[in-house]
């Protein structure tokens, strides 16, 4: 019995000795390899270059946040604005939906205004109910109201002050849901105007629907730039229809002119810079609906006199408009504009 115990002990010790020797051999091999390789090389110190985030121009009241800090607007997140817009829509439910009103803003351009009125009143436009001239010539008495040979009333509304916001007022005497916002130097031909209105009724009641598209494009740093939309693009992308010639639902004018805190700041900004009310209304419509505008072309191209004098002819116009895009984005807290590609031409729909 003792002999068996001693034999088992010797076998156990032999196995342990073999294990220890094998482990020592492996450890010695690792040490030899490390000695041959030498100590690990030290990575050189690398100084990363300083990166300056692009900054927007020094804008009074602007926080300096980079525009990329603002995400796209999601209408579902705007509970109170959507409630206010719903109330505005209900307010105008009783207005006519099968007729429209033209609101033409004018300032010291009598020839352009006369020419535009002459064309618009020369032919019967079945759905045109009234033309209201927003008279911003505060030092001049407007002509008297009259009715055209085709039976269309023309009313001159004297503005409280010379402000671009005056054209966007929801006039309490308007009788239609659809308002064609227009400058005194641009118009659709009469037959095309009727087509544009019927297109608004069918497809664009809650979009700005009109003739002059514009684009908002971010650069590599995310700063928004205003431009006339490149004709070289494979897709005719646009995100704004400016109010030189476009249909708007009364509810959008109501919201724009409301006591909403953001809209009060927007209107003050427009008055201070005497610019960008049309960009602001595009912000409003896309902010509330989550959709972009609708481009509508007639059989003939719209007429634009492009007079020598005007806001768009001043030096730095595009830069000022780009500044508006970035300023308004901060005011809204997000970028609401939506790119669209579809447009409608008289006789054809282009998707």
TrEMBL record:
<keyword id="KW-1133">Transmembrane helix</keyword>
<keyword id="KW-0472">Membrane</keyword>
<dbReference type="GO" id="GO:0016757">
    <property type="term" value="F:glycosyltransferase activity"/>
</dbReference>
<keyword id="KW-1015">Disulfide bond</keyword>
<dbReference type="InterPro" id="IPR004263">
    <property type="entry name" value="Exostosin"/>
</dbReference>
<dbReference type="InterPro" id="IPR029044">
    <property type="entry name" value="Nucleotide-diphossugar_trans"/>
</dbReference>
<protein>
    <submittedName>
        <fullName>Glycosyltransferase family 64 protein</fullName>
    </submittedName>
</protein>
<keyword id="KW-0808">Transferase</keyword>
<dbReference type="Pfam" id="PF09258">
    <property type="entry name" value="Glyco_transf_64"/>
</dbReference>
<dbReference type="InterPro" id="IPR015338">
    <property type="entry name" value="GT64_dom"/>
</dbReference>
<keyword id="KW-0812">Transmembrane</keyword>
<feature type="transmembrane region" description="Helical">
    <location>
        <begin position="12"/>
        <end position="35"/>
    </location>
</feature>
<feature type="domain" description="Glycosyl transferase 64">
    <location>
        <begin position="100"/>
        <end position="345"/>
    </location>
</feature>
<dbReference type="GO" id="GO:0016020">
    <property type="term" value="C:membrane"/>
</dbReference>
């Amino acid at each position: 019995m003792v002999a068996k115990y001693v034999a088992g002990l010797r076998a156990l010790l032999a196995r342990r000795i073999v294990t220890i020797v094998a482990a020592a051999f492996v450890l010695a091999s690792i040490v030899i390899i490390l000695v041959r390789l030498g100590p690990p090389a030290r990575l050189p110190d690398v100084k990363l270059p300083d990166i300056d985030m692009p900054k927007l121009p020094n804008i009074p009241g602007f926080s300096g946040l980079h525009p990329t800090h603002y995400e796209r607007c999601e209408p579902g997140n705007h509970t109170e604005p959507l409630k206010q817009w719903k109330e505005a829509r209900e307010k105008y439910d009783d207005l006519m939906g099968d007729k429209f009103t033209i609101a033409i803003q004018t300032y010291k351009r009598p020839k352009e205004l006369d020419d535009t009125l002459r064309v618009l009143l020369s032919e019967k436009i079945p759905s045109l109910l009234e033309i209201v001239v927003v008279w911003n010539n505060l030092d001049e008495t407007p002509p008297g109201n009259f009715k055209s040979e085709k039976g269309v009333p023309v009313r001159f509304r004297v503005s409280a002050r010379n402000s671009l916001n005056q054209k966007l007022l929801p006039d309490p005497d308007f009788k239609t849901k659809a308002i064609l916002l227009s400058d005194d130097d641009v118009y659709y031909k009469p037959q095309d105007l009727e087509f544009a209105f019927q297109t608004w009724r069918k497809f664009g009641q809650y979009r700005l629907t009109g003739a002059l598209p514009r684009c908002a494009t971010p650069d590599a740093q995310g700063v928004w730039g205003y431009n006339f939309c490149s004709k070289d693009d494979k897709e005719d992308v646009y995100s704004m229809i400016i109010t030189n010639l476009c249909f708007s639902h009364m509810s959008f004018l109501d919201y724009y002119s409301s006591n909403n805190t953001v809209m009060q700041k927007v209107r003050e900004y427009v008055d201070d810079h005497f610019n960008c009310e049309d960009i602001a209304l595009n912000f409003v419509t896309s902010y509330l609906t989550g959709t972009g505008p609708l481009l509508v072309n007639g059989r003939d191209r719209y007429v634009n006199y492009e007079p020598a004098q005007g806001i768009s002819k001043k030096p730095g116009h595009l830069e000022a408009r780009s500044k508006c895009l970035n300023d308004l984005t901060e005011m809204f807290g997000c970028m609401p504009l939506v790119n669209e590609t579809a447009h409608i031409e008289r006789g054809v729909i282009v998707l």
